[in-house]
Amino acid sequence: MGFVYREYRPLWLADVVDCVWTSTRVGTQRVVPDGCMDIIFSGERLIVAGPDTAAFLSESTGPKVGVRFRPGAAPAFLDIPAHVLKNTRAGLEDLWARDKVERLIDDLHTDQPGKVLLHAVQDAEPDPFARVVEQLARRSGDVRAMAGELGFSERHLHRRCLTTFGYGPKMLHRVLRFDQAMDLIYAGTPFAEAAHLTGYADQAHLSREVKTLAGTTLSTLVQDADVTLYTS
Question: CB neighbours of 33 closer than 8 A, spacing ≥ 6?
Answer without folding.
Answer: 51, 52, 53, 54, 55, 175, 178, 179, 213, 214
